[in-house]
Amino acid sequence: MGGFRELVKRRGLKVGTYLGEFATPGIGRMLKAADCDYAFVDMEHSGFSFETLKAILRNLHDVGIASVVRPPSKAYHHIARCLDVGAQGLVPPMMASAAEAQRIIDYMKYVPEGGRGVALGIAHDDYAPGPVIESLANANAKTALVPLIETAEGVENVFEIAALKNVNCLWVGHFDLSCSLGIPGQFTSRKFNTAIARVMEASRKHKKPVGRLAASAEECAKLHAAGCDFICYSGDIWLLQAALSSGVADIRARVAKAAARKRTGKR
Predict the structure, then answer these.
(1) For the chain, how many structural domains are there in total?
(2) DSSP-derived secondary structure letter, 173
(3) Domain that includes residue 108, residue range
(4) β-bridge mates for residue 232, sequence order
(5) Sequential DSSP letters for 52-115
């Protein structure tokens, strides 16, 4: 299993989904059966602890589903611990500048590429023993940084962010970006689309893929046509709600229709 960095190298569509509620041991196999390539695991807006994250990642990785994790913050202890428990890629929130992205890279990478505190033979390297230099190099090679561009400042500095060697992919946080631009939820506005166009231009210039979340298959296809390689199709909460709401509404409609027929004597 090549992990998230291998997906970055692979050209074309990569489809995953968001996990922010369900930590069942079967989640990896469910996503595998659904033909997902990866999962976006959220710690910023969920109740997931690091212990929960560790279990989710093992369930994903054991069946070949890659992972990218949004940590609770950009603090060193959150960045390093997410990686220690096995995150293959990180999507730190509110990335504002190249200097900030470089600081996160320093947190993520072992020497000589950064200053991450060393712990080997644990979850992130599948508990495997090995020569220290080789283990450090392998860990550096498989960790991916995916800056979350979701502020006006991040958009302004996106070319410099994308230019960094150890930035592997860009991700657009569309809701927060619209709020930062002063147009909450106005995703069809000219101001929002100008910002998105700048992110896409930076991705093309520096040959970095882009990821986004979307709620429908139609919207996902449009985002891919616009240049997004990593498509995150909805999420655990909303997929269950949508399927359950549709099913419950259908049941009620069918029962009401049958009752109406009975009252009128129609078959």
Answers:
(1) 1
(2) -
(3) 4-235
(4) 16, 213
(5) HHHHHHHHHHTTT-EEEEE-S-SSHHHHHHHHHTT-SEE--SS---HHHHHHHHHHHPPTTT--
249 domain-assigned: no
266 pLDDT above the threshold of 80? no
Report pTM: 0.94
Block residue for tokens 């027929």: 261
Q: Is the pLDDT of residue 87 over 80?
A: yes
Residues shown for the chain: 267
pLDDT digits (tens, 9 = 90+) for 211-245: 999 999 999 999 999 999 999 999 999 999 999 99
Give a yes or no: residue 198 inside a domain: yes
Sort 138 into a burial class: Cβ within 10 Å, 0-12 / 13-18 / 19+: middle
Q: Give the integer Cα–Cα distance in Å for 53 and 87.
A: 9
Contacts of 74 (CB under 8 A, 6+ apart): 92, 93, 94, 95, 100, 103, 104
SS3 state at 48: coil
In this structure, is residue 102 part of a structural domain? yes
Mean pLDDT (the chain, rounded): 96
**CATH no. for residue 191?**
3.20.20.60
**Is 253 within the bounds of a domain?**
no
Report residue 225 as tokens. Answer: 């046509």
Contact 65, 56 (CB under 8 A): no
- Residue 1, pLDDT score: 44
Instruction: Identify residue 174 by its one-letter amino acid code.
Output: H
